[in-house]
Sequence to fold (116 residues):
Amino acid sequence: MSVMLVFTAMGHFMFTKGMVMMIPDFIPFKTTMVYLTGIIEIVAAIGLLVPAYRVLTAWLLMLFFVLILPSNIIAAIKHIDIEKGTLNGSGMNYLWFRISLQILLIVWTYLSSISN
Fold:
């Protein structure tokens, strides 16, 4: 999970424009928010590796996965291509993939960090 988080965090810095497009309109400082969530993912990756912080980090990470789901819904509705920062994305197909992925990540986090 930690390795996956580092790779997804890299996407926040490599595909900032597309990720900014995913953020709901009512949230200010979108670029800052994209960078901040990338940093959160890096901190979570480290936290999962530190036994004293593993369980707390896992619970917060699962909450984080739930909280970012609306951005993925927006990406699907607007057909956002995150990597290109355009409106030529795969739409609802992306959403079904993403919801399944979010569930998998939550289960993976729970099983690998809390249920032990």
